[in-house]
Design goal:
With 762 residues, the protein is an alpha+beta fold. The protein has a domain at 24-383. Helices cover 44% and strands 15% of the residues. A hairpin with a 2-residue loop joins strand 19 (188-192) and strand 20 (195-199). The radius of gyration is 45 Å and the shape is flat. The two termini are 51 Å apart. Residues 437-448, 502-522, 540-640, 650-666 have a biased composition (Basic and acidic residues). Residues 1-14, 469-485 have a biased composition (Polar residues). Residues 400-427, 667-684 have a biased composition (Low complexity).
């Protein structure tokens, strides 16, 4: 399990000082986003109904950093009901490294008869173009494996119902090989008002490599209703091994919950993940994955370590995680100089600033900043998801479900009897299907348009007489009127010939009339030109006489202007001398003013140089103060403890494993194959020894004593050193106990096998 949080002091500003002023509380507990992780549910069921109507979804802006990866997408958040607050909280969106070959179908809020109910989202294959709604499957028959695991690197895949031939068929569970950094999510059904949706099994990334999870938020003031408001997540949730210490499951809500859900107040609704899934009464993909990491060198006895840490917080309410980012900050500030164990302090802090995480050089998330253009592109790419959510609401709402029920119950005869096969088929087909966005939908639309065009073309041919003429009525008419049709054709041909002859004659007459009209127009033009010529000559003479008169007048005017200019030359000379003197005086004054201005600017520049030095000193002082404040904030962040599980960096070129399948090994036999150990054999003979052996034989000795990771109240004792000393001193006796238990289990297993062989042989 990777640890993506800060392990060294970093000088990164903390933007959390104004959280409350925005009317937003950043929560360090609440539901995990369902697209990030959700518990396995063998029997689909609807979520509870709440009385209050949920608000409209918030305008959520993706954060300014995103994890590196070709298959990383932003999945928006949604409203969730908080019973303690009696109000809604916003489950922030998530950066998700999508499961290979899968697409997300978002959930929605639906109006029920007595309130509102959240209908969860689900994953489905990219190759699926339509999601079918099926009848609710029978109760699961899964009772756990009936044989031990073939090896340490195997995990159990639970059985499930498969809808085939208009009925449900049970597919037994089996053992399958596990793969590093991959978690198998088994097939299950998702409840909707219209029917159940089958979610096929798929491989998903390990939790630490799924992306970036953000804190839920609670609005103490409804600022999200303000015009132009948008919300941008800024705090992340630890997705390393620490998340599983404070992870709870709430089966009735189909969600994981994280944070402080300890104590009797929550014991009937919130179940600790680490203890609920021990054994096979309840199945969990993470538990199945972690269970096979023991002894493989990756996370030695990881489940035992998680269980130990959970017990520490279950028995000591003082050190439980805070419920908001502000409370977490206050807790760390008030306990920065106390002797709290480093592991406890680390696990107490679930929230982390996105800025700090982005600047953490030890994180393998490799967060990259994104600009406003990419943010806008991401927001526009979410439109198909929003449209798909609306389509689900329209299709799966209570009214649409009533229509499906009528179709499903339509196969009843007059005596009230039903056809079982027809009823099962109608029960599935009458529920309809949900079309998903993708290439198949575009191809179907093109095919539908082509079909519509073909239908219109055929209808037009029928109306125009281009259809089939071999009906009996048309055949009799053709026989009876054959001669009449021939006469009609000859008459039509004669009429066409006559029309052509008349048209040709009219065209010839028109051409002759046009020629005559042209000759008349030419003669008339020549006559007009002859009459205009004398008139033009007289007009030219008059124009020349007028021109000579104008020329004489112009000469007289020029002579008058010349005399005026000679008389004004003397006056102009005097004025010119006056202007030259005035210009010389103005130039001298401007030169003096310019020199004075330059001297004043030089004096001001000298003053500004001193001010610049003072400004630099002030900026340097403020920078030093900001660095000291940042160092104080960073000193409050818990550092990585010595006994923290080792960080395993993920390879970026991993290939997705093959789907789990039943092989020919003895350990992979289904429950109903003879030869497997019966289900009532004690657990230590069924391959479940670690869960049934007492704690001191399970490698969990350090955690069986609550509080062994808490500060030693005796003084300056080192809890970590004491823990290691106790472990080393107890190691020989523990190993001897394990050897004795192993020998006893082996002998008991051989005895049971002999009895079974005798029974089978008999």
């Amino acid at each position: 399990m990777s640890d993506n949080r800060s392990t060294t002091t970093q000088q990164t500003p903390d933007r959390s000082l104004d959280d409350q002023s925005e009317g937003v509380e950043y929560l360090t507990r609440g539901p995990l986003h369902e697209a990030f992780a959700e518990p396995y549910d063998a029997n689909p069921q609807p979520s509870p109904v709440v009385q209050q109507q949920p608000p409209e979804p918030i305008d959520e802006v993706p954060p300014e950093y995103r994890p590196d990866g070709k298959n990383v997408s932003w999945i928006p958040g949604y409203w969730s009901w908080d019973e303690e607050r009696e109000d809604f909280i916003w489950v922030s969106g998530v950066w998700r490294d999508l499961p290979p070959g899968q697409q997300w179908v978002p959930g929605y809020w639906d109006k029920a008869n007595d309130g509102y109910r959240y209908i969860g989202g689900f994953w489905t294959s990219n190759s699926v173009s339509e999601v079918q709604y099926l009848p609710e499957p029978p109760k699961s028959l899964e009772q756990g494996p009936s044989s031990p695991a073939p090896g340490e690197d195997h995990f159990y895949v639970p059985g499930n119902w498969v809808y085939e031939s208009n009925d449900y068929q049970w597919q037994p569970g089996f053992w399958s090989a596990s793969h590093a950094d991959w978690v198998w999510v088994p097939a299950q059904y998702v409840w909707t008002p219209r029917g159940c949706v089958y979610q096929a099994g798929y491989w998903d990334h390990d939790v630490a490599h799924r992306g970036v999870l953000f804190t839920p938020v609670y609005y103490s003031q409804p600022v999200y209703r303000n015009a132009g408001y948008s919300y941008r997540p800024r705090y992340t949730i630890d997705t390393s091994v620490g998340l599983f210490v404070h992870l709870f499951v709430r089966p009735s809500h189909r969600h994981y919950y994280f944070g402080d859900y300890y104590g009797s107040r929550y014991s009937n609704n919130y179940y600790p993940w680490a203890t609920r899934y021990q054994g096979y009464q309840h199945y969990d993909p993470f538990y199945a994955s972690f269970h096979n990491r023991n002894g493989r060198g990756r996370s030695n006895n990881l489940l035992g370590w998680i269980t130990n840490q959970y017990q520490v917080f279950a028995n000591n309410d003082r050190y439980r995680p805070a419920r908001t980012i502000a409370d977490q900050r206050n807790f760390l500030r008030s306990n920065q100089n106390t002797q709290i164990d480093s592991t406890v302090l680390r696990l107490t802090s679930l929230g982390e600033s996105l800025d700090v995480l982005a600047n953490n050089q030890n994180s393998d998330l490799n967060l990259q900043p994104i600009g406003s253009d990419e943010v806008q592109r991401i927001r526009e790419s979410l439109n198909p998801l929003r449209e798909l959510s609306r389509e689900r609401l329209n299709l799966e709402s209570a009214a649409a479900n009533a229509d499906a029920s009528v179709d499903a119950d339509a196969n009843v005869d007059g005596n009230g009897n039903t056809d079982a096969n027809a009823d099962a088929r109608a029960n599935a087909e009458g529920r309809g299907s949900l079309r998903l966005p993708g290439r198949d939908q575009g191809e179907s639309r093109d095919q539908g348009e082509s079909s519509a065009v073909s239908d219109l073309r055929n209808a037009a041919n029928d109306l125009l007489g281009g259809g089939n003429s071999n009906t009996p009525s048309q055949q009799n008419d053709a026989d009876r009127n054959q001669q009449g049709n021939a006469d009609m054709e000859r008459g039509r041909e004669a009429a066409n010939n006559a029309a052509d002859t008349a048209e040709q004659r009219a065209r010839n007459a028109s051409e002759r009339a046009g020629d005559a009209s042209k000759r008349a127009r030419d003669a008339s033009g020549q006559a007009r030109e002859a009459a205009e010529q004398p008139r033009n000559t007289a007009e030219g003479v008059r124009d020349r006489v007028e021109g000579a008169r104008d020329t004489a007048e112009g000469a007289r005017e020029m002579s008058e202007r010349a005399r005026d200019r000679v008389e004004g030359a003397g006056d102009l000379s005097e004025r010119t001398r006056d202007r030259i003197e005035q210009g010389r005086d103005a130039a001298n004054r401007e030169a003096r003013d310019t020199a004075d201005s330059i001297r004043e600017r030089m004096d001001r520049a000298t003053d500004r140089t001193g001010a610049g030095d003072r400004a630099r000193d002030e900026l340097r002082r403020r920078s030093d103060e900001a660095t000291r404040q940042t160092d104080r904030l960073e000193s409050l962040r818990p550092q990585r403890p010595e006994n923290w599980p080792s960080q395993i960096r993920r390879s970026t070129d991993r290939a997705i494993p093959d789907r789990p399948r039943l092989d020919n090994s003895r350990g992979n036999r289904p429950n109903n194959v003879p030869g497997n150990a019966p289900n009532n054999v004690p657990g230590n003979l069924r391959g479940n020894s670690p869960n049934n052996v007492p704690g001191n034989l399970r490698g969990n000795v350090p955690g069986n004593t609550p509080g062994n990771l808490l500060p030693n109240r005796g003084g300056n004792a080192n809890p970590g050193r004491a823990l290691r000393n106790a472990t080393e001193s107890a190691a020989p006796s523990i190993q001897q106990g394990i050897n004795n238990a192993t020998q006893g289990a082996t002998g008991g297993g051989n005895a049971v096998q002999d009895v079974l062989n005798g029974v089978i042989g008999g």
